């Protein structure tokens, strides 16, 4: 049984991320439908859902990479349709690490710092410290093409948080990491939140969510079908028996599957 | 070990491959439109020429002999097609499509044969219209039913032999490069240098006019590739050798069969068994810089420099552009074929001019700016590939991003343009005014080209890294971007150069003699440059806007 993040009850700041009826339509298919979120500053929001539920589409809308069909979303009051303004506040780690394979980690992170115009000394110190923390310092002058999947993931994670964003979006951040690195990354995610960063975390590794998330949202066929703390979510079954988050997730998505099918028929 | 039914599996792979190609084409409406326009234009031109030739041929009395020029032309075309296919090997087939699936499902023989069939089927699609035209011309000229069969057969054998030989050369090169780390690291530069050398040798040979006797037109009958011409015209009043036609068929079958086996061995060695295949991305794996003081990218491109006054975001983008090119120079392979074609074309023009050296500054003023844009910025979004989400969310502005792609072309293209146009003006013995005109035109056109390249490249991006050296994300620019960019630079530059070099009579006619020719010429050049600058300004704003509004598809 994983241990849940301590002190989560205290998280009740002003919303850092809000969505109101956020919808993305591809032709007749609704990838995301009427999504309403209000995620407090400094919290970790676990975003769950089966494959094809619309998680990545949601993250792409929230990071301004795609435009919503209808509804709105904002980061600290800035609409996500205003990319120039919103990108100053966010960091994004997509599922596939966004790295140039023929650069070294130093060069890649130097680029990321440069594109965000971070003060050089501050950026250098932060790069060094994050590389050290994630055990990448020794390999930082090796080209990323020679990295393992986990090393690439760690480099991309550093790139996403390098500029100390207000909200960071992480899509499967622990994928491909060994247990030690995965633990370090989980600890860093919690530290980010403790320092006031809002973390929007999408993953299929449910124990990670169970351990670090303050709130969990379950997306199914584009709709938010449940939202609660991990503890309450695991107690939501009709029987009232305690179950794991995984069991709750499976229950929610299969129930919804049945009801959606019933609605359609 | 080859599995049972490998031939059937190969055909299935070939059909799946060509289907992918067609679907890829369907997803690109701009390319379809360009292809349609080109096909209609070429069809009208070639069709008209064909009808004229057919009418001419009908008036000739039999027997008609095959001109040596036709034999030479067909053989030269065959060499060109071989070159084209060898380039496709390097660009598209370093790894088979869906490598992990295919290589763990079927044998390398099946995979290699599937690759060749994919390419052959695609070539057939392209060759159908010209073949129909050719059949029509030959059939109409000679009223020969045999042409209906023999012309397509000759075209098919022509394409298949060129394809197999091209892939043999391509994979032979890859295997050798894979086994020599030094060669692998330098392969991009080597290819570019070899091509430039070949073009220079060709131009020098043209200049000195020394043609060996073996190249006399009458002797071209010995070229085996020309024997397919004998095959195509069998049954017509054209005198053809049956033995040469048969030798052409048998030789082609031998080349196709034997070459396919060689391709299978070489491709298999490269894809699977070759120890050097681990270094397929070897030009990406050399040791990086050993320092980190916030200047890792600057150290990476040293001794080249991107000045800091342009701002850090722009500077970083420009540094990455240069670094990517330095570490994977095969990004420039798409330019090689274009440079070769241009070189050969210029060679032909060169021999026909009374004062051939006058061509040098024209080429420099037009071609160097084109190259400065094409080398660095014709596919900015595609070059970013998987990094694009990070770039788009990095808070860099559109203008900074576009300027980053312009900078290398400006910094390193401008001095080369000035130098080349100056030298060209001197060797071309132009008057001082015209010489200065060339330099000015070259400079302005370089600025225009390096702005237009990212603007057009971002309008027609190419992301299909799945098929092109996937690991390193090397994606050549889209054909649409190359054509549109070349047309834009060619038309704008060509217009200004025409204004600079047009005979005085043209201005006298245009101005009706009211304005002095010198003033009219100056106005023409300045006006042309003004139009080019306006187009570039519009392109710059459009590119910046496109970056800022770009959404992931």
Protein model, in words:
The complex is a heterodimer of chains A (265) and B (553). Chain A has 265 residues and is of the alpha/beta class. Chain A has helices at 55-62, 83-86, 105-115, 120-133, 149-161, 179-194, 206-212, 230-234, 245-264; strands at 15-26, 29-40, 44-48, 70-75, 78-79, 90-93, 167-171, 198-202, 215-220, 223-228. Chain A is globular, with a radius of gyration of 19 Å. The mean pLDDT of chain A is 86. Residues 274-289 and 465-472 of chain B have low confidence and may be disordered. The longest helix of chain B has 35 residues, at 108-142. At the A-B interface, strand 6, helix 3, helix 4 and helix 5 of A face helix 10, helix 11 and helix 15 of B.
Q: How far apart are the termini of chain A?
A: 40 Å
**How many beta strands in the DSSP annotation of chain B?**
2
Structural class of chain A, by secondary structure, is alpha/beta
Please report the two chains with the greatest interface, counting residues with C-beta closer than 8 angstroms to the partner's C-beta.
Answer: A-B, 49 and 48 residues
Radius of gyration of chain B: 26 Å
| Fraction in beta strands of chain B | under 5%
Order of helices and strands of chain A, N to C? Answer: EEEHEEHEHHHEHEHEEHH
Mean pLDDT of chain A: 86
Number of helices of chain B: 20
Mean of pLDDT of chain B: 83
Please summarize the sheet with the most strands of chain A. Answer: 6 strands, mixed
Query: Gap between N and C termini of chain B, in Å?
Result: 42 Å
Strand arrangement within the widest β-sheet of chain B reads 1-2
Helix content of chain A: 25-40%
Low-pLDDT runs of chain A: none
For the largest beta sheet of chain A, what order do the strands appear in spatially? 6-7-8-3-9-10
The sequence of SSEs of chain B as H and E is: HHEHHHHHHEHHHHHHHHHHHH
What class do helices, strands and sheet pairing of chain B give? mainly alpha
Low-confidence stretches of chain B: 274-289, 465-472
